[in-house]
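User: hey, got a sec? need UMP-CMP kinase 2, mitochondrial folded
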Amino acid sequence: MAFASRPRAPLLLGRLLGPVRARRWACVPAMDPRLRFAVELPDCTLAHFALGSDSAGDADASFAHPSFAHPDPRLAELLGPPGRSYSLCVPVAAGWDCGARVQAARLHQRLLHQLRRGAFQRCQLLRLLCYCPGDQIGGVQHGFLLRDPCHGPDTRRALLQLLSTCQEAERPHLGEFEADSQGALWQRLWALQEGAQLQVGCVRVVPAPEPVLHPVVPDLPNFVVFPDRDAGRAVLEECTPFIPEARAVLDLVDQCPKHIQKGKFPVIAIEGLDATGKTTVTQSVSESLKAVLLQSPPSHISQWRKIFDDEPSIIRRAFYSLGNYLVASEIAKESARCPVIVDRYWHSTASYAIATEVSGGLQHLPPVHHPVYQWPGDLLKPDLVLLLTVNPEERAQRLQGRGLEKTREEAELEANNVFRQKVNMSYLRMENPSCHVIDASPPREKVLETVLHLIQSTGN
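Assistant: Yep! Here you go:
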């Protein structure tokens, strides 16, 4: 393969796309040497790489450290021959608003469904993030790395055809990875122009250091772990044109007063993964304390769970987040006359969101005491949060034969041990209030005794 004839991208853009289109393509990954990529490998580790110079003799000084002098063998195996790899990232713009985030998330989900069909079924599909270290919130592009083990001639054609189904303003960026005769890795960037495929850049792929924080962590409060009611509400407001139920949820939320206070009776939230005995314990505790038993999301919106569970994470989390505020309004009323037990509350919403969005293993979760683990300032706070746990083997045994319909996350808990560990670890890092861990493995009577004793001692 001859790289000497490779044109510099800005000149190519000016000639082929004109000034307006050139400006639009000026933000694509191949044009910004700061951009880094993080791909989640099958072993749940992350490989980071960057785009260097578009000249083989002009190494990027920012990657001149000796530890980056040689290619990461994992990258060579993933991006180089045999086979061929492609990157597909949903574009973002600086300062993008809530509506743009929702549309980008919907496009990402649509691409995910398409990349699991047809000509792509033989390919390995991995999560890919594109980010600028130190950039402001909203700068992460979510995408995919598609590894074709056979280097089939129809894969790029199918990808470009997939791009043609997207509106031009939201069209993802398609990169194709190659290795030259010296083993160096390159990324070619492709675009569609009036039905024709154009190469709009070619840059060197170089290893990059792992950032201190996972790239999505700064974005979590804007995307899935909403810090207040207004943040979740803004997301569902953008969904009303295509999800009629979103308006119904918003109308219910708007009927709830923003400033509410808990009554004189205790409020206990009980959390836990499926098959930890949460339903049994909540019912038993509520009967023992003559308490009202509430659930989040509450019954008057839980009928729409399936609709929102099928939506991208930002929409799904907004629904569950607002469900917490609806429950809070009920808690305020009921706790004035009796104790209240809540079957799941904010900790569930946040823990599942963090575990889903942060790719890789446990080591990539936000660190202890990170603000994302803090209870929202405008949400009614329980007096006590109990986290029921059982060992994985017993939980698997309890799940057998239940035959209940599973949400996306519940199915993931069963299939993915790392995801389950991330959910549990996120629970344990929650603060203000934190979770009191209860071993739910003993017989029901013993667990109930432990829970009631803890409630009574907390009340004293």
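Quick note: The chain is about 40% helix and 20% strand. Let me know if you need anything else on UMP-CMP kinase 2, mitochondrial.
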